[in-house]
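testing teh design pipeline on a random one, pls ignore if ur not involved
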């Protein structure tokens, strides 16, 4: 067996009989075998003459050196030289250790020089929570648009009372034109003026904001498969509304800023909340997205770092858990819900947002995953526990995704006009159910009698069995027995009939077909090139190439996949046969030994030399990728020595930006190259 010893300037092949090598006991590629000369005289320990004499050359030396016989002769000559030197040393090194391996050191230094610009982890440019969070979102969803609730496309969330629309305006009929609440019917006729508002038809179900607030704004942007929804919500500390200028439609100040990004194909969702240290926000100027508009947007990144909540006080994923970017309730004013007679009714046409927030039916079996490592670390336990449920009575979940979180415990209860209940509750369930009943009671106390009446105009309950949101005078409530079964499921007190499944799905590894994109590297190849002028420590450059399109979610600027390379060096076998699968570096050797935040790295990984976090060629550190819908070229230039075989495993990995960390491809691609120097 021929082994390689090298430094930055010299290399030597030592031919060792395999029977003798086996007796060494620890002859692995990364172990150090240091033996005293005295011990080496004992043939049971090591062979004092390890050099195997080659057969007589049958052709001129210059010709023989180009074939396997030449390789044997060269190995013997260098081996003899090394043995003579070693006899004068205190110890004889049989194999270089990974800790003191000149080849590995030289490899790491050269590969870093040649590939370092393209070796970096996505979203690793900053340790600031919000900046990093924004970079993670951009790596998954592509560019994040500015949050602009002041543009002409944004919609005002209406306030309805007794079937009329209400706004705060100066009352010209009273001296001084004081601010009062104007009530208009669907035809635009003023019905009355009022000085206070205690109830409304569609109070907010959020529970921690003004129940009957008015003139909040919602902004929606769609970029390919990704949808961005921003809510600029007016609210008051006491959760009630007063005739103050703050509530006017033309007043741009508001209390709560929330942004949701959602990929309707991959099911990935991200939540950004405005800082809770601010008394108010102002929508006259668009808000810079978290992480700025790019890595190079230094001003925007600095501004955004203080604009958003780095403590994640609001658990957005508890409410927005129906596998879609928005909660279905009458409060937002969707035309298809909360209107007697449906979307084509007079009031819906006059007051609603129409289809600005469209219907998005998503099956509970589809993928759904929260992005943002800091957010998911904060709520890791809740995300792991969340479950979807199936309604045993078949009333609700044929159309809706219900969960053991807020869509079930609050929104489903309000939609059905029922109170949460558990048949045989635990103490923890008793406490939780009581708290939710209290919250629902507070919401209902702000609902008008008009909304609850049984005659024409009734809109509560706002979902009915079999007919869903098709509310009519004849619509009936869900039966007590059916509700009890569903409520038990929602509060995790049911059995097999609930068909519990995890709400949030796993991060897909690169190349996964089911739930992933199925993309695999193609055109994997190698090429041996001359060493660049002035470079030392290598005889040749081994260039590895492949093509790959990160197509998960169909985002052209997606940037959450990198590649690792594990590579081993062996003598070129005399037979010239192709290697076996077992000869290549293992999958584990191609994985990161330590998952840290180091920007780019190279070195050893177990037995193999290692290059990590390689992006596509041209994608320099801390730059945003140009959009692409075709495979990108990946390239790695690696130092190589003459007359060596290099075996490589190229392994893709996805940065999940959640509590699961990194997911690797199942096998990777293997290739080898024989570096011969004539």
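output:
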């Amino acid at each position: 067996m021929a082994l390689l010893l090298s430094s930055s300037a010299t290399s030597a092949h030592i031919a060792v009989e395999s029977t003798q090598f086996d007796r060494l006991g620890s002859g692995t590629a990364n172990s150090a075998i240091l033996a005293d000369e005295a011990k080496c005289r004992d043939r049971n320990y090591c062979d004092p003459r390890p050099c195997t004499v080659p057969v007589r050359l049958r052709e001129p030396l210059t010709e023989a050196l180009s074939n396997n016989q030449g390789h044997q002769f060269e190995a013997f000559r260098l081996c003899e030289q090394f043995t003579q030197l070693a006899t004068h040393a205190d110890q004889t090194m049989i194999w270089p250790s990974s800790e003191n391996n000149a080849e590995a050191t030289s490899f790491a230094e050269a590969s870093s020089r040649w590939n370092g610009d393209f070796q970096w982890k996505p979203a690793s440019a900053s340790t600031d929570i919000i900046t990093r969070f924004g970079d993670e979102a951009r790596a998954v969803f592509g560019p994040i648009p500015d949050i602009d609730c002041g543009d002409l496309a944004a919609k005002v969330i209406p306030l309805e009372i007794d079937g009329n629309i209400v706004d705060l305006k100066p009352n010209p009929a009273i001296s001084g034109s004081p601010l009062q609440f104007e009530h208009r019917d669907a035809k635009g006729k003023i019905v009355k003026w009022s000085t206070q508002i205690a109830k409304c038809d569609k109070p907010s179900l959020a529970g921690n904001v003004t129940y009957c607030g008015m003139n909040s704004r919602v902004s929606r942007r769609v970029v390919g498969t990704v949808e961005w929804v921003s809510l600029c919500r007016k609210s008051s500390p006491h959760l009630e509304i007063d005739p103050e200028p703050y509530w006017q439609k033309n007043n741009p100040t508001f209390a709560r800023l929330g942004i949701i990004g959602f990929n309707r194909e991959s099911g990935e969702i991200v939540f950004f909340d405005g800082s809770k240290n601010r008394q108010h926000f102002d929508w006259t100027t668009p808000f810079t997205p978290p992480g700025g508009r790019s890595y190079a947007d230094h001003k925007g990144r600095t501004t955004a770092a203080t604009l958003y909540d780095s403590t994640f006080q609001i658990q957005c994923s508890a409410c927005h858990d129906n596998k879609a970017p928005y909660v279905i309730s009458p409060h937002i004013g969707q035309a298809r819900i909360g209107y007697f007679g449906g979307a084509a009714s007079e009031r819906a046409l006059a007051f609603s947002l129409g289809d600005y927030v469209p219907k998005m039916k998503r099956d509970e079996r589809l993928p759904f995953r929260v992005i943002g490592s800091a957010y998911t670390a904060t709520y890791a336990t809740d995300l792991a526990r969340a479950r979807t449920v199936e309604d045993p009575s078949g009333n609700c979940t044929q159309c809706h995704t219900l969960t053991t979180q807020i869509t079930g415990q609050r929104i489903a209860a309000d939609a059905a006009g029922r109170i949460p209940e558990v048949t045989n509750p635990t103490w923890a369930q008793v406490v939780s159910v009581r708290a939710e009943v209290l919250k629902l009671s507070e919401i209902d106390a702000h609902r008008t009698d008009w909304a609850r009446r049984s005659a024409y105009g009734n809109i509560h309950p706002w979902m009915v069995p079999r007919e869903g949101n098709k509310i009519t005078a004849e619509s009936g409530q869900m039966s007590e027995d059916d509700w009890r079964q569903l409520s038990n499921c929602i509060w995790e007190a049911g059995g097999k009939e609930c068909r519990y499944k995890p709400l949030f799905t796993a991060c897909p590894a690169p190349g996964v077909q089911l739930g992933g994109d199925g993309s695999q590297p193609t055109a994997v190849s190698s090429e041996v090139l001359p060493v660049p002028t002035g470079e030392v420590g290598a005889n040749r450059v081994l260039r590895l190439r492949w093509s790959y399109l990160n197509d998960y979610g169909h985002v052209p600027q997606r940037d959450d996949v990198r590649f690792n390379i594990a590579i081993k060096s062996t003598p070129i076998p005399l037979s010239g046969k192709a290697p076996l699968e077992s000869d290549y570096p293992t999958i584990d050797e191609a994985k990161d030994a330590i998952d840290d935040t180091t920007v780019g790295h190279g070195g050893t990984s177990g037995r193999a030399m290692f290059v990590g976090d390689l992006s596509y060629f041209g994608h320099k550190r801390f730059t945003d990728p140009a959009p692409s819908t075709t495979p990108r070229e990946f390239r790695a230039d690696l130092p190589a020595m003459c007359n060596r075989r290099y075996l490589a495993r190229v392994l893709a990995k996805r940065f999940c930006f959640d509590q699961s960390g990194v997911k690797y491809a199942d096998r990777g691609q293997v290739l080898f190259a024989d570096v011969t120097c004539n």
